[in-house]
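Justification of computing resources. Each target in the renewal requires a structure prediction run like the one illustrated here; the chain below, 346 residues long, is used simply to show the kind of job we budget for.
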Amino acid sequence: MTHNVYFVGSVALPDAASVFETSSAVIGPALKRIPDGETGARMSWIGWLEPVFANSPALELSDEVWAVHAAASKHRRYRLKKGASLADFKIDTLPYADYARESYAVFKRLRDAGKIAPGTKFQVDFAPAHSAARSHVVAELLPAIEPIYNEAIGREIDRIAAMIPHRDLALQFDLASAVFEVLQTGKFGHHGSNKEEAASGFAEKIATLANRVPRDIDLLFHFCYGDNNHRHSVEPIDMADMVDMANRLAKIVTRPIQLIHMPVPRDRSDDAYFAPLKNLAVAPETEICLGLVHHTGGIAGVKKRLATARKYLKSFAIGTECGMGRRDPATIPELLKIHREASLCD
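Resulting structure tokens:
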């Protein structure tokens, strides 16, 4: 059995050209889609989006310090200015399409030069409001700001779809710890009074964005429990919440879903973690990617996780749990080699 390889988003290399060339050279055609690595200022995943809030005339820094978990990086959230109204908070554009235009030009040049396999697609990754807004504004503003932010993402989808040939394009939406930590801990906040309400609400918001993606562009979902300072926001009990979310999206997303990525912690090769996969109910054309590739433990650890996963899922792609940006760049060459070797495991 061979496995396709999937990159979630960030890669700790100097620039987009390095990401495209290096990953293609090591992994080859098993890598069906390549993000630009979210290099430079974007390596922080959602930290680079702070100017969206900092530059709003309606907001100011509060004294509230926020972190996704106790050992995570910390920063101050924004609040409404005295005398301002939420009607004053507007987002004209987000920076996604501008970066995509620049990186796609590099991608196309390298593909035309034969340094990227024919048929490989250029991947753009979005962090919706449940992550990006939560990280940057105080909790009481989220119910009003989240729909404004997600509508701005919708306009970025439109901009990117207008500038890049659809046959070359894949768009990913992140359902990160802001979703799965809430579902597992029961700290639902404004997302509902119980788990069903919260899960349904998250799925509906994401489906609204997904249904805006033209049908001839690949649609991808990345599920995550966090990776700040190499620590999850909460340790997943098993894959049940992720399987449930995948099934919900499969029902309400009205266009094909090409791939859903689900993380596997490095210390989980037990049946209990993978067993919920037997309840997966997605369309045959939806590829599941299991994020079971870790630098720690090398290929031996990957093989243990692969062996258990195959008991519950016949075919799947492989990748890391989260992005590869927030790690020592010196580990990237070995990590790419582990991907390649794992993709060939039978």
